[in-house]
From TrEMBL:
It comes from Phytophthora kernoviae. Residues 153-481 form the PDEase domain. Its EC number is 3.1.4.-. It is an enzyme of class 3 (hydrolase). This is Phosphodiesterase.
Length: 503
């Protein structure tokens, strides 16, 4: 330490009666003391730990070893599309840090702080096959099913009162009693699926009454968010947003932790806006083409930072401010949580975030074992974002075909602009079963299994069962054709009548 630094330390100590503490120095000293009493093999293990620490390596960095040699091309393709980083996280994207972990906390009756340690509690899951007794809630949803606007050729307009009431009951029942909502079925009867699902979740939890929220403001907010999703995208559109809202409601209502109602509401808002204004191409594409978004966000988690900004542009308007009931400290906490949640959906850091989750299983102190609210909220949105992978196969397949189509369109754009075509983006070389086995095994399964080990979630066995079944079905399709099948999106399916690509 330089003499100038020593002078500063002494001055601080004298003025503030405060000693600067270097925790890493203590850790290294303890390790060296332990090492003296060890045999040669154990000393080598300790040296490995010390080397990692003094080189300032990211201890949550993930190195992938190939356990799927037969799928090497698909593995590399998904890693490319995920913009997977094999270098340590930057200072603004440390997966081990939690938003809002400063010393100042604000405790309120309705809202937890992002770094608050959560205790085990019963879940919010409603009793099995609960009935819908709130006729006001049903009436509030009915108008979503009676629009006479231009819904497209594939959408049936429902106008009769009994039909609209029946659909409202169906949606509320799916939200309350089942582990997924068939968004494609909903779309056939509803011109605004994101608004319908968001409001159904709000009403199922009683947030409109409990927080004194204006129904008009809630609907207007959901409408403003839904309008900013691009209909031309096969995958990253309002249907995906609606599905993610329904899924995060499922997980947060069933996790056995004692977080507050305000946090669940914040989770619904984050889920609604987590992919807002998505352009239908990857972060890697935006960076490679030096797009305005990449320039604005300095090539750093470009899409996710844009989604946050777009969501808060909407929330900044009084007419859409669904957090108006919160105090200033609560609003600040809500923003920290939402930022952390949406940044967590960047697949480039997917494995590192799983690594952070895994550390909870090995924690030796009660404090280290604690589950922070921010970790819960981020993990639940990650699960919801990949939610289709753990749904019945036909439903999952529709989403898999949609993301493939979005990749193909990116590939065609790359080809049109004389750019190298990204892996998984060549329509003529697509192999959907192999691609999905790779994605579900490499990306989805580690997340879902680790989350199930860290968090106790009611009805989670059904989720894991569907995920494993989907892997089995895709593998059967590969085996039945000796791996030579080339599958692309089925445009004849009623679930996949996609918007035309802009020319």
């Amino acid at each position: 330490m330089s003499s100038a630094n020593l002078d500063i330390k002494e001055e601080l100590s004298a003025k503030l009666n405060y000693q600067l503490h270097y925790e890493m120095g203590d850790i290294l000293r303890i390790l060296c003391q332990i090492k003296v009493k060890m045999n040669s093999n154990e000393k080598r293990d300790i040296d490995k730990i010390i080397t990692a620490l003094v080189r300032n390596q990211d201890l949550f960095e993930v190195t992938l070893s190939s356990k799927m040699p037969d799928y090497e091309e698909e593995v590399q393709g998904w890693l490319h599309m995920m913009d997977f980083k094999d270098h340590p996280a930057g200072p603004n994207e440390d997966p081990g840090s939690r938003p809002g972990t400063g010393s100042e906390t604000h405790r309120s009756r309705h809202f937890s702080t992002s770094n608050e340690i959560l205790r085990v509690a019963t879940s919010r899951r409603l009793s099995a096959k609960s009935t819908i007794a709130d006729h006001h809630a049903i009436d509030g949803l009915s108008h979503f099913f009676s629009s006479s606007g231009d819904l497209g050729e594939t959408v049936e307009v429902i106008t009769r009162p009994r039909q609209t009431e029946g659909l409202s009951h169906w949606l509320m029942d799916r939200i309350q009693n089942h582990f997924f909502v068939d968004i494609f079925h909903l779309e056939q009867h509803c011109s605004t699926p994101l608004q319908a699902v968001f409001m159904a979740c709000v009403k199922a939890n009683g947030f409109d009454v409990r927080f004194g929220l204006s129904e008009k403001k809630l609907v207007d907010f959901a409408a403003a968010v839904e309008e900013r999703y691009h209909h031309r995208n096969p995958y990253h559109n309002r249907l995906h947003a609606a599905a993610v809202v329904a899924d995060i409601n499922f997980y947060l209502r069933r996790v056995r932790l004692n977080f507050d109602d305000g946090s669940l509401f914040v989770g619904l808002v984050a889920a609604a806006g987590h992919d807002i204004a998505h352009p239908g191409v990857s972060n890697g594409f935006l960076i490679a083409t030096k797009s305005n978004l990449a320039i604005t966000y300095s090539d750093d988690t470009v899409l996710e930072r844009m989604h946050i900004a777009e969501l808060y542009r909407i929330l900044s308007h009084d007419a859409y401010d669904v957090f108006s009931h919160m105090s200033t400290p609560e609003r600040a906490e809500a923003r920290k949580i939402i930022i952390g949640m949406i940044l967590a959906t960047d697949l480039a850091r997917h494995f590192q975030r799983i690594s952070v989750l895994k550390t909870k299983k090995f924690a030796v102190s009660e404090e280290a074992q604690g589950l922070e609210l921010s970790l819960l909220m981020e993990t639940m949105l990650m699960l919801a974002d990949l939610g289709h992978t753990a749904k019945p196969f036909d439903y999952h397949q529709s989403w898999a075909e949609r993301i493939s189509e979005e990749f193909f369109r990116q590939g065609e754009t790359e080809e049109h602009n004389n750019l190298p075509m990204s892996p998984l983006c060549d329509r003529n070389q697509a192999n959907l079963p192999r691609s999905q086995v790779t994605f579900l095994t490499l990306v989805a399964t580690p997340l879902f299994e680790t989350a199930g080990q860290v968090f106790a979630i009611d009805d989670y066995d059904a989720v894991i069962s569907e995920l494993r079944n989907n892997i089995s079905v895709w593998k059967e399709r590969i085996e039945s054709t000796d791996g030579t099948i080339v599958e692309t999106i089925s445009t004849t399916s009623s679930r996949n009548k996609l918007p035309k690509q802009n020319v």
